[in-house]
Specification:
Length: 146
């Protein structure tokens, strides 16, 4: 069993198969066994991606809450420090404004709507990055053939 990602002159392709590496075909539809295996992998990834996006959305919101709590804690500590006393007014103002706008970190309650919105944002960012990679590769291939 092997899986190899390679780039040939015609463009990027994935090689997947069982046995020795010289026996496989590329995943552009050549070879019935490899085509079926790649189809199964594509279906499994298609079914797992939304679940993974929802998981990462929830994890991202939990991390945001923790980082927000630490940011407010360190801003409060910096406003009380003798070393940062010239900036104490700014730190207190930032802390007060953050708590007015976003509330206390312990009072944050995320429901499933928040998780879905975060996962939608992550999915959009991943899609834009995939599109950028495709465009970069097509431009590189265009200049490579000239």
């Amino acid at each position: 069993f092997f899986l190899s990602l390679q780039t040939k002159d015609e463009g990027p392709f994935v090689r997947f198969g069982f046995g020795s590496e010289g026996e496989e075909e590329d995943a552009r539809g050549q070879g019935t066994r490899d085509g079926r295996i790649m189809y199964i992998i594509d279906v499994v990834l298609m079914l797992l991606q939304p679940t993974l996006y929802i998981f990462w959305g929830g994890l991202t919101l939990a991390h945001f809450q923790i980082l927000y709590q630490y940011a407010l804690h360190w801003l409060t500590m910096a406003s009380k420090s003798e070393y940062t006393s010239p900036f104490a007014v700014y730190f207190q103002t930032i802390t007060a404004n953050l708590e007015r706008v976003m509330g206390a970190p312990n009072a944050m309650k995320f429901n499933f709507t928040h998780v879905l919105l975060a996962s939608l944002l992550i999915a959009a960012l991943v899609s834009v990055e995939k599109l950028r990679i495709i465009i970069d590769r097509s431009i590189a291939m265009k200049y490579k053939t000239q």
